[in-house]
Amino acid sequence: MNDYKDFEIHYRFQGEPRRFNHQGKHLCESDALHFATLHAGVGALEGHICAGPVKLALRYAEGLGITQVQWKRT
Fold first, then answer.
1. Any alpha helices (H) in 1-74, and if so which ranges?
2. Residue 8 and residue 16: Cα distance in Å, rounded?
3. Cα gap 60→31, rounded to integer Å
């Protein structure tokens, strides 16, 4: 049985709105930040930003130009 769910992630990269779909078993705010940095091309799989506190992940993502990250299950 496939227990993956579909999610839609919206964010702004340097002020420009962007969105993409993601499949996974679960998603949280820090995961959404991580996937947004990957989608924008400014993140890396190493140094996964969701490994620490969400506030630090938010600041790190903002420093890369990622803001207003929102997600929902579709």
1. 29-40, 54-63
2. 17
3. 13
